[in-house]
Write a structure and sequence with these properties.
With 150 residues, the chain is of the alpha/beta class. The chain is built from 3 helices and 8 strands, in the order E-H-E-E-H-E-H-E-E-E-E. It has one domain: Cytidine Deaminase, domain 2. It binds zinc ion (ZN).
């Protein structure tokens, strides 16, 4: 299961609307425990695929390392990635699967139709190696921000 707060969930979806008709992408920082990826923050990443930014995404390794380091300073790990599918369903593509290497991470996809974010789905990359990896549908739980902290 993927858990995130309302603010982060909205930020991911808004990012896809902003970059439409191109894909957006980013990294989810948080903590992993008991089969739940708890997202604390979503970090935007530049889409480095200039050849066809509308249907492929890629995060530069240097950028990923930088985001990972920033996360560690806050005690957070990379627990997932997100990107958008402009005018395409929120389902993973063959390319998405081929380029997914972070076992145990959540891959979040938001369908953006005519500039408006529609369905957001999450897929957990399961398996123990590159050979037996698989995407599994994953539930998303969106929690309201801590309104009652006292
Ligand atoms: Zn995709």
């Amino acid at each position: 299961m993927l858990k995130l707060n309302e603010q982060t969930y909205d930020a991911i979806r808004r990012h896809g609307e902003e970059t439409y008709p191109h894909e957006c992408c980013g990294v989810l920082l948080g903590r992993s425990a008991d089969g739940v990826n708890n997202v604390e923050d979503a970090v935007r990443a530049g889409n480095t695929r200039t050849d066809s930014a509308h249907n492929r995404y890629h995060i530069a390794p240097q950028e990923l390392v930088k985001i990972q380091r920033l996360g560690r300073e806050r005690g957070l790990d990379i627990v997932g990635f997100y990107h958008s599918h402009p005018d395409h369903p929120a389902q993973w593509s063959k390319t998405d699967f081929a380029e997914a290497h972070w076992l145990g991470c959540s891959y979040v996809i938001t369908a953006v139709e005519n500039g408006a974010a529609k369905i957001t789905n999450s897929f957990l990359l399961t398996g123990t190696t590159e050979e037996d990896k698989a995407f599994e549908d994953e539930a998303i739980e969106v929690a309201a921000l801590e309104a009652e902290r006292c």
